[in-house]
Amino acid sequence: MSVLAVAGLLAAFAPSVGALNGMGDLGPIVDAGQPLARGAALTAAAMTIGHLLLAAGYRPGRPLGPVSADGYRALQAARSWALLQLISALAAALLTVAENTAIPPAVLLARPALLVSDAAAFAPAAGWLITAGVATLVAIGAATALSWRSAVGLLVLALVGITPMTLTTATDADFSHDIVGDAITLHALGALIWLGSALVVALHLARGGDRPAVVLRRHGHLATTSSLVLTYSGLATAAVTLPRTAVFSSAYGLLVVTSLVLLLGAASVATRLRRSLRGRSGALVLLAVEIGLLVVATGAGVALQRLYPPGQTDYVPTRLVYLIGYDLPAHLTAADLALHWRWDVVFGPIAIAAAVGYLLAVRRVSGRGGSWPIGRTAAWLAGCAVLLVATSSGIGAYAPAMFSVHMVQHMLLATLVPVLLLLGHGVTLLLEVTGRQGRDRIESLLDAPVSRLLRHPLVALCAVAATLFLLYPTGFYAAILQDHWAHIGMDVAFLGTGLLLYWPVLGRALRGGGLPALGRIVMIFAVMGLHAAFAAWLLAQPAPLAEPFFTSVHLPFVSDLLADQRRGAVLAWVLGELPTVIAVATLVTAWNAADRDDQPAWQLPQRPDPVPDPPVRSTPAR
């Protein structure tokens, strides 16, 4: 109902997107239909995610067994909602193309080739099409999945499927479109998870589902986390799109304030719901209030996507703003790389949260009477620090505009950060501080077929090779360089493939101890060979990669693009080999210690048995 109301209000009072773009009024089918399709797709996505949360987290089955009875019903419901998401996303893609080309939807449907070409050329429409494709996979998986691990995998897939639509929302003409695009993605994920969870929990209670107190407590924890994410992402967006003078003097500013107030109210209700359960009827009343506030806030968010922010009114983007989202100084010095920080909305908080969470886990181990090696803590914190520097310092700011700095960032994310994090053994620490049931579920996920496939040495090597030889030599890097989603996609790919590559070499939380000694050495030399081959190929190139883009950037201190590219090749080679030296030194040290302790030389010492969980005091039933 909220989606219908917002669509009607936008059709009646909001200016036509076609008129704003100088193409004339496109009529109510497009003006009201696009937000209606968008809202329907988001609602369906929320319901899909909510049901998958119930199957994977709120009422899970056994770690190595099937889903629970409630989880099975949730999977069947998720299939239906994913199909609705598919249909709505396709409609949103069609109407997005129509409003940006001034071609009526009927004409586009009659000419499929034109529709496909226009959708591929316009990023928001392409994002909706990718979302529709992922929804199809989720629907198929939900119809066939029976195990708890499959439910977890579908939940991850459903969350990933939201990101293409959100990352393509901000246009290149928008100032700070890099920050806005990332913040919108976080905001959408937080809102959809929270709304879907509240709706599905209410349905679970209404039909007399099992263990309502446990379900409500878990929903409350998720709502608290989502409210923090929403507040952070909303403030990040408002900081670059909403001048302080327009907070209460513009429709956009009033909608932002209204959304914030509604979210704070919903968070307050969720906190009260988690702390006190007074029967199903009382919980349902509080859930209804929470859902009502979230639905209205979601409607305001849909409306915000159809209004121009006051900070963008009459704004003429500069060349650099159009290409990368922000301006850069006309010089590059060591001080610029160290002090010219531009906060990465995604990786910045991830790095800080990972460091804080690790320290809290170490404190918990110490509180239980255990110990944790200081070297692991130092390695993990160093990895978090390098991740923060690589994405939010001057390295992260200059990387999209300068190839040599991009290669420095690439190698830091793909080699040094993974090696340091793996030397911190975060998964092993997580197993130490988690209860017995939690450990069983984590080990079950680590031993899942998909997990084993991803960390297989050959698969990991192929993935790393793809980030080098399929990204740059094929021209794909040049084709996607101007799109912001490509930058965050590359960062995720570099970090993810690096973790997969070094995990069999340095990881300890692996069944059987990981690769034997010979396999670890082979992996290290294979990595060195990949980096050397790529650097040699890059040095041999007679022309710069992505030359049209970097020529358009036209940084005054980069007079020779080919020389900058060769500089990047040398830096990539050096930075790529440094982590392998650290890995070799770590392995040699571990093997020497194993020889002294008469342990097998091919197997790293296994983690000690965790400290037993404290006994749980039973409470008599009332």
TrEMBL record:
Membrane topology label: Multi-pass membrane protein
Q: What domain of life does the native source organism fall in?
A: Bacteria
**For this UniProt entry, which segments traverse the membrane?**
35-58, 78-99, 119-140, 152-171, 183-206, 227-246, 252-271, 283-304, 346-366, 378-399, 411-433, 453-472, 484-505, 517-540, 570-594
**UniProt keywords, alphabetically:** Cell membrane, Membrane, Signal, Transmembrane, Transmembrane helix
| Annotated signal sequence range | 1-19
Q: Where in the cell is it found?
A: Cell membrane
Q: Which InterPro entries does the record cross-reference, listed alphabetically?
A: Caa3_assmbl_CtaG-rel
Biased segments, Pro residues type: 607-622
Name the segments for region: Disordered.
598-622
Q: What is this protein called?
A: Cytochrome c oxidase assembly protein
Q: What species is this protein from?
A: Pseudonocardia benzenivorans
